[in-house]
Amino acid sequence: MKNHRSFRIVRASALLSLLGLAIPSMAEQVYISNEKDNTLSVIDLDSLKLISTIAVGQRPRGITFNKDFSQLYICASDSDSVQVMDVKSQEIIANLPSGEDPEQFALHPNNKHLYISNEDNAVVTVVDTEKREVISQIDVGLEPEGMAVSPDGKWVVNTSETSNMLHWIDSGTHKLIDNTLVGQRPRHVEFSDDGKTLWASSEIGGTVSVIDVATRTINREYSFHIPGVYKDKIQPVGITLTHDNRLAFVALGPANHVAVIDIAQQKVIKYLLVGRRVWHLALNSDETRLISSNGISGDVSVIDVKSLAVLKSIKVGRFPWGVAVKP
Amino acid sequence: MNALAYYYCFVGILKRETYRFLQQRSRFLSSLVRPLLWLAVFAAGFRSALGIAIIPPYETYISYEVYIAPGLIGIILLFNGMQSSLSMVYDREMGSMRVLLTSPIARAYLLVCKLLATSLVSLFQVYAFIAIARLFEITPPLMGYVYLLPAALLPALMLSALGLFLSSIIRQLENFAGVMNFIVFPMFFLSSALYPLWKMRESNEITYQICAFNPFTHGIELIRFALYGQFNLLAFSVCSITTLVFLALAIIGYDPKHGLLKRKSGG
């Protein structure tokens, strides 16, 4: 059956080509939350053009897709809710209870539990996205921010900006198991695809710590030096890693650069100049493109991963914050 | 006079310029060292000075080194133009120009040949510089190197024409210090070579207007756009018109009947 259908699609495509009609490509789309505009910007990753702007709740920050990319979760911080957007219709279909001031979140691999950091009241809220109800709240350090779930779903890790700690939460019991002290103001955490290491950025400390998940201790710490940029301006925030664990990208905030780390060599191999106050990063599905949100300059930069060159910076709304790519 | 005679005339002048250039290795080296010093020393200090506004033809934020590169190509062309002017004055003083001017071919044609020969020699230096500049992460798209050829040729002609015109009015080599002070430096500093025009406007509207009027600015912008695969019509028009005006002035200047040569020689 499948072969017959493929043949029909090929035949139809050939016919359209003969008639000189272009077949619309299914280009990847980049979604960006604009913190000050209360909107999402959508960019076509082929043409590198802004294709739509969607009004959402107050102060949208963290955004993430569900597993089949049919829904987008949006932390509407000042609306005190996590909004659920239907990607096809681009309409908000639900507001999940989220606790106060949700900033970042992470979706469990079970596609059901959403772990939300509530910056104002020092808790992590666990929401069941199907039942749309809070199932647990876990006390953590002051000003929780970064959030990640390990690929095997066992660990939930939250960073608290003021306590300078990573909090290890058991996803089965929703109990805080351990803490790891890292550099000042940890803002973001990211697991490697194999689940063996956890990367944490420290904004004021100016470092990125690589933590061994088995022992929950720091294995290695990276610091950054950009010629011509004052040290205090180097404030690491967003991190993203390639699936093959070859490269790590670190957004360096007001230093306006993205650092590229060769993980095997354990060194920074390049600094890429992007817009002002680069905040978060996302890779597209085949990892050929890296997208950075640049808060103060109000744009996103698109980076070619193979050549490690910035291709284009595209204007979006005011203070772009979160980035997510839909294949 | 057949076409072959014109061809021999052009080849003769081109060969002379090329030999002169090849024999003066220090000239070639200095023409490379000058922009490379700007790039490696001056630009390094201003590394983070730009990067707050995206201006065409760039599609993203650039380092100062990337910004300054077309301006440094301009400085090669500018100094070469002046050098050719200097060599014309020298030729006149040494008497070798008489040999050239006794040619039965029209003087205007001889001057155009001289212009083209000087410009082609300049282009060789431009490509040598832009090849070394890759080490400083100045890596325009590959097609940019192709578009650079005509885009750099026009400002090269423009500046050589200016040099030719100057040589028609300068009597002695000693007067060249004045050319450097009153033409080369103002032309370079009051242009978009070192800073984008919007930066100039931030500090002073009059300076901005002078920079926008300066034909050297347009030469640099033509090169800048071409390096990134774009065509700047305004820059092209200004460069073309300025080249024709300077060339016409040089032809008049070298005309024994009406030119300045006649007046200067007291005839």
UniProtKB/TrEMBL annotation, chain A:
Coiled-coil stretches noted in the UniProt entry, renumbered to this chain: none
Pfam families: Cytochrom_D1 (PF02239), Lactonase (PF10282)
Stored InterPro entries: Host-pathogen_enzymatic-act, Lactonase_7-beta_prop, N2O_reductase_N, PQQ_b_propeller, WD40/YVTN_repeat-like_dom_sf, YVTN_b-propeller_repeat
Signal peptide residues on this chain, from the entry's feature table: 1-27
Keyword field: Signal
NCBIfam families named in the record: beta_rpt_yvtn, PQQ_ABC_repeats
Official protein name in the record: PQQ-dependent catabolism-associated beta-propeller protein
Organism from which the protein derives: Zhongshania marina
UniProtKB/TrEMBL annotation, chain B:
Subcellular location: Cell inner membrane; Membrane
Taxonomic superkingdom: Bacteria
InterPro entries, sorted: ABC2_TM, ABC2_TM_bact-type, ABC_2_transport, Alc_ABC_transptr_permease, T7SS_ABC-Transporter
PROSITE patterns reported for this sequence: ABC_TM2
Molecular function, one GO term: ABC-type transporter activity
Membrane topology: Multi-pass membrane protein
Entry GO CC: ATP-binding cassette (ABC) transporter complex
Main location: membrane
Keyword set, alphabetical order: Cell membrane, Membrane, Transmembrane, Transmembrane helix, Transport
Domain ABC transmembrane type-2 as annotated: residue spans: 26-257
Family per record: Belongs to the ABC-2 integral membrane protein family.
Name of the molecule in the record: Transport permease protein
